[in-house]
Amino acid sequence: MKNFMVKELMVPISEYATVPENATLFEAVLALEKAQEQFQQNRYSHRAVLIMDKHKKVIGKISQMDFLRALEPRDANLDQIRRFGRFGFTRKAVALQQEEYLKTSPPILDVYSKAAKKCVTEFMQRPTEGEYVDENGSLDIALHQLTAESNLSLLVTRGTEIVGVLRLADVFAAVYQNMKKFELKPTDGEQG
Question: What are the φ and ψ backbone dihedral angles of 158, each rounded to 5 degrees?
């Protein structure tokens, strides 16, 4: 069974969706769409956009979930409703309260338009210490980092420079293929 190196599985920054730190949410969506179209032929789709500073250094990322959260209305009443779960209310009860409250919110097209014009830095997630992995690290190390923090991806480093993204989907594919080869190979007593 092959133990891959991180650099064999990562997506290089040059092939990943990126936008400058002053980009709008809409520009980030367009960058993600373009990256998915270009990359989709042979691998899994991108699910995030990297945010770059003026020196072309990664300062954060915005995931599909971050995009959707940007569309969520933000006000004290809705935040209070979301906290109902802490007091024993079921998810369904909280969801029904949110739904009732949102009936008085602006139309969704207005929300889309407003969110699309906002800067990506308002919604991006800054990488944490556990989200980096060295390009020469083994698949075992990367697998541990992904599962320990439930990360969907890791930023791959060469020294202090970020050179790529290691995605959960690519690690899963490598593990699956290794498992398949190992489990389907003939044992010593069988003919192959």
Answer: -125, 100
